Each structure stands twice: as C-alpha cells, then as structure tokens.
Amino acid sequence: MVTLADVAQHAGVSASTVSYVLSGKRSIxxxxxxxxxxxxxxxxxxxxxxARALASNRSNIIALMVPLRTDMYVPVMMEIAIAVATxxxxxxxxVLLLTGEEGADAVRRIEGSALADAMILMDVELHDDRLPPxxxxxxxxxxxxxxxxxxxxxxxxxxxxxxxALCAEHLAGLGHREIAVIGEAPGVYERLTGFAERTLSGLxxxxxxxxxxxxHRPCEGSYASVSATVGRIFDERPGTTAxxxxxxxxxxxxxxxxxxxxxxxxxxxxxxxICPDQVAVQASVPLTSVALPAQEMGRHAVxxxxxxxxxxxxxxxxxxxxxxxxxxxxxxxxxxxxPLP
Amino acid sequence: MVTLADVAQHAGVSASTVSYVLSGKRSIxxxxxxxxxxxxxxxxxxxxxxARALASNRSNIIALMVPLRTDMYVPVMMEIAIAVATxxxxxxxxVLLLTGEEGADAVRRIEGSALADAMILMDVELHDDRLPPxxxxxxxxxxxxxxxxxxxxxxxxxxxxxxxALCAEHLAGLGHREIAVIGEAPGVYERLTGFAERTLSGLxxxxxxxxxxxxHRPCEGSYASVSATVGRIFDERPGTTAxxxxxxxxxxxxxxxxxxxxxxxxxxxxxxxICPDQVAVQASVPLTSVALPAQEMGRHAVxxxxxxxxxxxxxxxxxxxxxxxxxxxxxxxxxxxxPLP
DNA sequence: GGCCGTAGTCGAAGCGCTTCGACCCTTCTA
DNA sequence: TAGAAGGGTCGAAGCGCTTCGACTACGGCC
Lengths: 341, 341
What we know:
Chains A, B: GO terms for molecular function: DNA binding. Two copies of one chain form a homodimer. By secondary structure, the first copy, chain A, is of the alpha/beta class. The first copy, chain A, has three domains: 4-47, 434 Repressor (Amino-terminal Domain); 61-157 and 294-320, Response regulator (Rossmann fold, 3-Layer(aba) Sandwich), CATH 3.40.50.2300; 160-293, Rossmann fold (3-Layer(aba) Sandwich), CATH 3.40.50.2300. The first copy, chain A, is 46% helix and 16% strand. Chain A contains 14 helices and twelve strands. In chain A, the strands form two sheets. In chain A, strands 2-1-3-4-5-11 form a six-stranded parallel sheet, with helices on both faces. A six-stranded mixed sheet of chain A has the order 7-6-8-9-10-12, with helices on both faces. In chain A, helix 1 (4-11) packs across helix 3, helix 5 (74-90) packs parallel to helix 14 and helix 11 crosses helix 12. The model of chain A is unreliable at 337-341 (pLDDT under 50). The interface between A and B is large, with 59 and 59 residues. The structure holds a DNA duplex.
C-alpha cells in the first residue's frame, strides 16, 4: 500500500507538505503542488481512511438510518437513500447504512466510536427513542420527517398539511363536493409517524373552508382491503365523487376496482394521489398527484449536514412546498344531465 | 471522549489488557475480565473506529454497491440491501453504501483508502467494468448476480435457469401447451445483466423437453405497454393459455387487462410470476410464483464475505434453488367441454 | 540598511488502538 | 526438586495521517 511518506519521498518533499497539498490548509507554491500531484497520480495514492480519521477526528462518513421494515413506501425510501449517497459523494462524504433495528443503540454506537461525523435519520416517529441520544451527541443530526419536538434538531420533510390542502383545492376547483380519503394502513397511524395525520389535518381544514364533505378511511395496500374500504365508503357516502389516496400500494387496486365497478376515471370518479411521481405515471390511468419529492429530501438533508459540519447554519426545519401535477385521473364533477364526452 | 487508556486506568490494568479483553486474542483471568468489563460499562466506552482501523488494518466495514437507477426491481434491491446490513451487524460489520455511479473508480477508491475490508456488488453485468479492479484488489469481493467470467470471484444468485424450468414444469403439469413469457423491459436485455436470458434458456429447454410451445416478448412495466404486448401475443398465438411473467411492474397491469378482457384467472388463463413474494401476495389475484429470495441472497453474500475475511473458504458460485409457491393464479388448462366449477 | 511580514517548507508530536516480546508466577513432569 | 510449560499481564513500538510551531528566504518599508 502506498502511503503519504512514499509520495513525499517520490516528490522530494516532506510528508507534511504533501498533507497540505491535499488539504489546502496552507499555501503551497505552484511548482511544489504540481510535483506532488504528479507523484500522487503516478503512485496511485489514496489516503488511508483510518489514519485520516484518527488524526483529524473526522471520518468523512455520514450515517444514514433507514427503516427496517420493507412493507411501506419502499421506493421512496430507496430513492431518498440513493439521493443521500449521491449528494454526499459530491461533498466528499461516504454513507454508512444503518437499519432501524438497532434503534437508539446505533446512535450511541456511532457517536461513541466516531464512525461517522453526522447522522441522518429516516422514518422518524413523533416520539422517537433515537432522538434523546441524538440530541446528546456532539455530532450533527438531521431528520427526514417531523417529530413532535424539533428543538435542537434539523428536519426535512414534505409539507404534508399543505399537500392535503392542495388536493382539497384542486378537487373543489373541479366542482367536487364530497371527498373520501384512502389513507395509509392502520399500522402507520398507530406508529405515530405524523405525516399521515398532518395530511389529514390539512385536508380537513381546507375542506372546511371550501365547504366540502370529507370522509377518511385507513386502508391496507392489498386488493381485498381496498375493495372493502371502497365498498364501505360508497355505502356511507353514495355522493362521493372524488378520492384522495395517500398509500402507494392502494392506487393500482383502487383503479382496477373502479374500472370493474364501471365507474370511469375521471369521468365518473376523480382520483388524486399523494405518491412518488413514478407511481403516478405508471398507473393504469396516469394519476393527478402531489409528488413525494424523495430526491429533494435526500439532497436537502445532506446539505444541512454538510453545512453544520462546516460550522455554518444551525437547526432548521425545512418543509418542502408540495406541487400538484395534473395528469388524467381527476376531472370535473359529473352532474346529472352532463352530456357524455 | 472516553478512551482505552481511561478504561485501563479505571480498572487498574494496562491498556493492552483491556485490548485483549475486547478482542479475546489472549487469555485473561475471569476476575480481570469482569473488572474491565464493568469499567467499560460504567464509562460507556466505545472503541474509536479510526484508531482501530489504523492499528489493526481492519475497518470492520463492508462496502455495498447498489445500482443507481431506481427504475427496476427496487423493492428487491432494498430488501437485499437491508438483509446485507442486518446480517453484517450480526457479524460485527457495518455497511458502507456506494451507488453504481462511481463504478470502477469506487472499487479502486475503497481498495486504496482501506475504507472497507470487503465489497459486495449488486446488479452485476456480464462484462462489468468493476470486475477487473475487484480482481486486482487484495480485499475479498462477492457479487450478487452472475457475470460471464466468475474465476477469482464469489457469486450469489438465484438459479434463474432452474426457475424458468420450474415454471415450465408447473404449467405443463396443469395441462398447458402454449405459453407466453412477458419479460423485462428491452433495456434490461440490452444491459446484459444475464439473469433474464438465463431464465429464458431454462424455460426454452424444458419447454422443448415437455413439448410446449413458447413465445417470449420483452415488455415495459407501464399499463399501455403491457396492453400492447398482450394484444400482440394473443394475435400471434390465440391458443395461449398461460403466462410466465418476469417483470415486477407488469404483473398488476396484466391482471387488470385480463380481467377487462373477460379472461378469468386462473379459469381461462394461468399466470406464473418470477417476483418477490410480497408482490405475488399483494396482487389482485394472489400469484403462483417463483420467489426472488432477496433476503437469502443478501445473507449469503455477507456470509461469504465474512468467511473470506476469516481466511476460510475460497471463491464459490452459489446458485440458490428456486422454489415455486402455489397460490391462486395458475390452474388446469380449460378444455372445450370442461364443466364450469 | 536594518526590520518586519509573509509565503513556503519542514520536523516532530501526537491521535487511540493493536500486537509483539518479555516477564512473572504457578503448576506439572521427570 | 529442578526444569519445562503455560497462563496472565505489562510496556513499548508502531499503524499513516494531521497539525502546530519553527525556520528560511525574500521583498517592502521607513
């Protein structure tokens, strides 16, 4: 393995000079710099990560904790993870993948061992037990999601309340008066992740303002359970003309069901989803949807981490503004006497 | 930060003794061990990762390279990644997440910087440009997937040829004589990942032996493209009574289409999928399927890596035996005069 | 012309750990 | 009962890097 000392000898300078060429922390003459860089190139030198971490007290690693379960919004998680890894690389950081399994212990372990310089936590619950050790840590932490108490922490998330409001507005604008929400699986609500509730409250509030009737039903992603849920909704509110879906897995079954029931989308029933764009585009009827900006969230999280590590900027809660893309699944409310298209 | 020396002082022993308690590389009296362990506990000591890596030349990190693209079998990738991370932890390793973006350079970087002790590569192509630097590296590497040349490398993958054969056998056993394969997107075949071709050759061979007619069509995952593909298949081979689907994204659109065309599954048409169990279970008709054993693959890969790092075992190609689970989407071929159930 | 400030370089002291050789003491064996 | 054989512990030498202080040389200033 080629070391700093080898490079120094090859270039005819001292080890510290090579180090300063690498870090740029002291000025180096152009000629020396060129010579050193040529030696690095020729010898194929890569700094030893362990030695560097030991000496500088910086590992250049960011830990990313992803949820263990693979039953929910997996593509979003994956997309965030990849965005985090990619963005981190552009700032010279690598990413350590932790699973939720270890929970708070993982936070303590990383902090204690100095394995990573900072942590990014996904799938944050309202009262997450990883937060106390994270607050106590001397390393910066950024959450993707929004806990009950955010002081001392940085957070990035979609503004789900605004997303809910946006759905309500769009449907109201199309003339709909009765809306049903097909929500996440009951387990999601029980785990108190918060985002589902925030969407709902945004929806409720704006529906109130606009005079819409709103019905909410949690729902598993399976075909059977979507079928049961939709059945109950139409029983209870036969006047329902629009659905808001916040459950990736439920979109396809819902469209299939409506088709089967001879309810045309969007002519008879409108559907608006809150889901990744990819899901919306691939659906059997391209979905008018509010995007889950996975990449943007990952990128933001890394940028906050990097800023904190550079001593810039403090704690910050960033709620990304939702954007609704009009596709084909939502249209004007059908009223009695409407001419067929 | 509490160090080894702090623990040593607290326990009244030398630093090396603490180190030996931790590593178990020399025998330590029960009383000393107990005293040291109590000190570690009380002080909340965690070994510094950088120092340990520097001194021992082992980082206890395994690098995992996942594909950058998020357009294909994402849940499988995620499941593998999580299985790798979880299994690695049980052996005391952490996982570094690399994206495919850096390609061969990432392999060289990890090797040069000693950031990780070993590498696991996913989404391996037949002639992958990461393989030469991996072969040249002094650290063990394990592939998830099967390249054209495997010498000097360990590989784990599903035996896709056997999976194909298994599908053919199952359908033949149910009396089907004409089978159509809905394959991966054309891009997958062009990228030469190999697994799609292996499935096909397994299918072809067994179909030949069993006297079945086989038709293969690549297909994008979108509803429109599945619709077009199925249309062409029935035009060309009206006698087709069974589908083999190797394309996660295509299963739901296919079932929806068949329903729309009034072809009942499994009464009129049988469907067998090669996909993760989760997809099979959640489909509108639970799919008889050959599972993609994501977890098992991840686990195996880590175990091979760990064995190699321990000096045990050499290069090995492990092809996991496929298993077919009977669910509801495949049944006996309908023949003229069949009584209705 | 002496003095200061600055750019450019070097040497040496660690960072916190592992590991080798050395040492002491007890126990077993001939 | 002497010597060998281990078990248990310690001290010290690194691992490859960063960083601090010190040193040289040079130009500008009064």
